[in-house]
């Protein structure tokens, strides 16, 4: 099967990019013939099946269509996988694919009206969480009636062996966070408030942050230096070496689809302290118990729930 993947970026740090890199590494091994087209990447990839269109702020929709049309033949006789369905409103007619399938990874402000613009453009939608399935089903009733809105679980490699951890009682607990250090969506300016609530609750903790971004310098000034470790961007074995040392993972995002880093942390035996924002992460965390999900963004409640978890016998956690 020919698979034509289309998205915005490939080189940046993000959950969608990690899934696309997995497709790039594995699609051919599964007998598919993959190709990748990225709207905002420059066309300087070494891989022959990866192409950047070089879109930028100076491009109009008309000029984007003209450039995209030069690559329309890539979609012939293929299944087009349109990740987060970016640009389909003005590019779908230039994709002469056998099928156009949306793969919805993310939630964001304005997702509902965006989905309503996709009517008639897609043959089906795959969603990474049940919350997204429910939202898409309401916005695209024709696809729902024909049973073409489905859940697709994220693949997670995990570790070969579960790390051994010392009991939580009587020691510093390590709370991890993964992502791009920015205000939009990730809202990292909330992390100092969470740290203060944990300190006020008398919890002996250390924050460990994986990632970088424009708010990193500000965070280094605002978070307690004796309780915070900035690891920067890591990948591969270095990433897993950090993750496996954590006890808990948290988030302060406004919205998420299904945070892959949280699933990876779960696979390494890391427990969640998850805000209830209606993401797939909430759903997974709630399966462990209500104490692992806190009302967004009540940091006092987050601290109280963590304190109650730490008060339990080790066998009960």
TrEMBL record:
It holds the Pfam family Glycos_transf_1. Gene3D superfamilies: Glycogen Phosphorylase B. Residues 171-315 form the Glycosyl transferase family domain. One of its GO terms (molecular function) is glycosyltransferase activity. CDD domains: GT4_PimA-like. This is Glycosyl transferase family 1 domain-containing protein. It comes from marine metagenome.
């Amino acid at each position: 099967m020919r698979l034509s993947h289309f998205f915005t970026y490939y080189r940046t740090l993000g959950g969608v990019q990690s899934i696309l890199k997995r497709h790039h590494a594995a699609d051919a091994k599964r007998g598919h013939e993959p190709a990748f087209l990225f709207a905002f990447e420059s066309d300087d990839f070494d891989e022959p099946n990866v192409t950047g269109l070089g879109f930028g702020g100076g491009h109009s929709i008309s000029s984007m269509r003209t450039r995209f049309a030069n690559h329309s033949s890539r979609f012939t006789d293929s299944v087009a996988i349109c990740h987060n369905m970016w640009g389909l409103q003005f590019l779908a007619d230039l994709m002469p694919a056998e099928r156009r399938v949306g793969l919805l990874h993310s939630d964001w402000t304005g997702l509902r009206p965006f989905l309503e613009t996709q009517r008639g453009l897609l043959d089906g939608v795959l969603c990474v969480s049940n919350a997204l399935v429910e939202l898409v089903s309401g916005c695209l009733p024709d696809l729902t009636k024909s049973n073409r809105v489905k859940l697709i679980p994220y693949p997670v490699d995990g570790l070969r062996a579960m790390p051994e951890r010392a009991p939580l009682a009587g020691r510093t607990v390590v709370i991890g966070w993964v992502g791009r250090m920015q205000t939009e969506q990730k809202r990292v300016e909330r992390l100092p408030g969470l740290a203060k609530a944990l300190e006020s609750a008398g919890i002996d903790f250390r924050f460990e942050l994986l990632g970088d971004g424009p708010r990193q310098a500000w965070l280094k000034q605002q978070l307690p230096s004796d309780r915070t470790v900035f690891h920067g961007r890591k990948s591969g074995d270095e990433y897993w070496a950090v993750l496996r040392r954590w006890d808990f993972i948290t988030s302060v995002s406004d919205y998420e689809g299904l945070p892959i880093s949280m699933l990876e942390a779960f696979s390494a035996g890391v427990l969640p302290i998850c805000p209830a924002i209606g993401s797939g992460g909430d759903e997974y965390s709630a399966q462990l118990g209500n104490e692992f999900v806190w009302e967004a963004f009540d940091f006092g409640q987050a601290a109280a729930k963590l304190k109650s978890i730490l008060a339990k016998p080790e066998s009960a956690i």
